[in-house]
Structures are given as C-alpha cells and as structure tokens.
Amino acid sequence: MGVDTIVERTGLAKMTLYRHFPSKDDLIVAYLEQVNRLFWEWFEAAADSAGAKPRERLLAVFTALERLVASPKCHGCAFLMASSEFPELDSPGHRVALAHKRNVRDRFRAEAAKAGATDPGGLADGLLLLMDGAFASARMFGTRNPGGHVSASAQALIDSHSDRPVKKRAR
Fold this sequence. Notes:
The protein is mostly helical.
C-alpha cells in the first residue's frame, strides 16, 4: 500500500502523514506496535478467561484463536506478513515482528513451565508454530480454514509434554 492510498483512505493530508511518520519504516513500526498492544490485550483476556490453572490458560488462548481465525475480520498475522514483506533481518519492520514472536514464544515457555511441561521450550516452540499456522491458514483460506481445529492440536501437544495428560475436552 502506497502513501497515496493511505492518504486517500484516511482523509489525511500528505504533509500531516509525513509529520507524524517521516518514513515508511516509521509508519510500519507504529502500526506493528499498535497491533502488538492489541494482541497482548487479546491474549491476556483469553488466558484470564480460564482462571488460574496454567494448562487451562494455554488451552484458552487456542480456543480463542479458533474463534479469531474464523472471523471475517482476521486476515492473518501482521507480524508474519511484515517479516515476509521485509525479509532483511535489520529492517525496522522485521525487527519489531521478530521481537513480537520472541515475546510470544517466551510467554508460552513461561506458561508451559508453570503447567509442569516436561520440556517447556519444546512445547513453547510447538505452540508458536500452531498459532502461526492458524494465522497463516486464515490468511490463505479465509474464514473456513484448518485453524478452526487448533485447540485440539494444542491440547494434544500440551498433553505430549506432560506426565499428567488431561481428559479430552468436550467441544
């Protein structure tokens, strides 16, 4: 999307846009920072909906993710898109996207450790891959996508990293 399209869609004057965002990189970084804030609000609300048990908190995130990727408002993951649009590791958009994914992975690792996972890092990696796959499938297929079953996959993955698997949840 070019500057002219942004100006047209927002109704801003070009000079106003440039005053706030001197470069395209500044605009991209500001957008990704806003999406990051919204993502973490969504993540916390989803996790908190399950109460205090760490395993249930992790599963609640993936139950919420199922709903999200089935929504017509979901067009995938802005961070995955930014990293593919700006593949150079030192580009500002790629750096922000990478920092976000590292934070998600770290959060999954912390929750996995609290849940007593036998390999919290391995579980965190798998959960990040599941989340990214669900977002990618939403982008690729639209609302009827394979991400609609991601919570069952997350439960199986969590169980595979536990000495105490739980009963299958009713859908």
